Amino acid sequence: MSEELKNIVRSKYNDIANQSKDQNISSCCGSTSCCDNMDYTIMSDDYSALEGYNTDADLGLGCGLPTEFANISKGDTVVDLGSGAGNDAFVVRSIVGDDGMVLGIDFAGAMLTKAKSNARKLGFKNVKFIKGDIENMPLEDEQADVIISNCVLNLVPDKAKAFSEMFRVIKPGGHFCISDIVLEGTLPSELMQAAEMYAGCVSGAVQKDDYLKIIENAGFNMVLVKKEKEIILPDDILLNYLSVKGLQAYKSNSTGIFSITVVGHKQ
Q1: CB 215 within 8 A of CB 182
Q2: How far is CA 261 from CA 26, 69, 212, 234, 237, in A?
Q3: Residue 179 and residue 260: Cα distance in Å, rounded?
Q4: CA angle at residue 249 from 213 to 244, to 5 degrees?
Q5: Mind listing the pLDDT tens digit of every residue in the chain (267 residues)?
Q6: Helices (H), the chain
């Protein structure tokens, strides 16, 4: 089942890589042969005011601004997990400067192609994009000063393995800052079973308390949620999976979908 879910996510994001941000807003994959009914930009934040922002790299796929609380310094080595077309990586590059290094990891070939093309256009020699699985990163031990990620870890089937890998790759004294989707309460079974919602970052999410526990169990300390916002899914999306009665029940209970930006440190 784990590999099946990875294949679903890889396929969806390979499709999305070939669309613009505007196309991702107007439909799930920007074509008349739309593969599902999820708007992948619905959780994203505005990057346009950030130094290093590149419009070609912004597909609107994030759910926060992880660099906002990442405390990245000039000269740092920063790893971006699920780097997509390079949106966060290029913002990081503006902070680390010529003396730093930015490594983006993604397992979607089309995303890597787009990110590498964007890096070439920008002339960056210290921003590299690598094909890899977050559960088994192609990186050395204690290589990163900082790890960032934006709306990606919720898509990883084995989150404990992913955070364990993060702990391995971060240097002693280093830290991570990630924006991600978590739940409070239980989603209706129809949403949990929908592959499209998994690739859209919702049904792959876990309970907030469980998520934070996974991080602590991986060995991180000083784990803090720095920012939190509720995600409101439009009725027209939910009605692709729920009946009208089911939608009313869903909206009347205490279930919540949240974007959190969380930091954790490695001693």
Answers
A1: no
A2: 27, 8, 11, 23, 25
A3: 5
A4: 130
A5: 578 778 777 877 777 787 766 655 443 333 333 334 454 555 668 898 899 999 999 988 888 999 999 999 999 999 999 999 999 999 999 999 999 999 999 999 999 999 999 999 999 999 999 999 999 999 999 999 999 999 999 889 899 999 999 999 999 999 999 999 998 888 888 877 665 665 566 767 889 999 999 999 999 999 999 999 988 888 888 888 889 999 988 888 878 888 999 999 999
A6: 2-17, 21-26, 87-96, 109-122, 159-169, 189-192, 195-199, 208-217, 235-238, 244-252
Domains in the chain, ordered, with CATH?
Answer: 2-265 (3.40.50.150)
- CA angle at 153 for the pair 35 and 240, rounded to the nearest 5°: 30
Token pair 């739309």 is found at: 34
**What's the one-letter identity of residue 230?**
E
Torsion angle of alpha carbons 4, 239, 37, 259, nearest 10°?
Answer: -70
Q: How far apart are CA 61 and CA 45, in angstroms?
A: 9
- What phi and psi, each to the nearest 5 degrees, are found at residue 95? -90, -45
State both tokens at 53: 């922002």
Write the burial class of residue 232 (CB in 10 Å: 0-12 exposed, 13-18 middle, 19+ buried). Answer: exposed
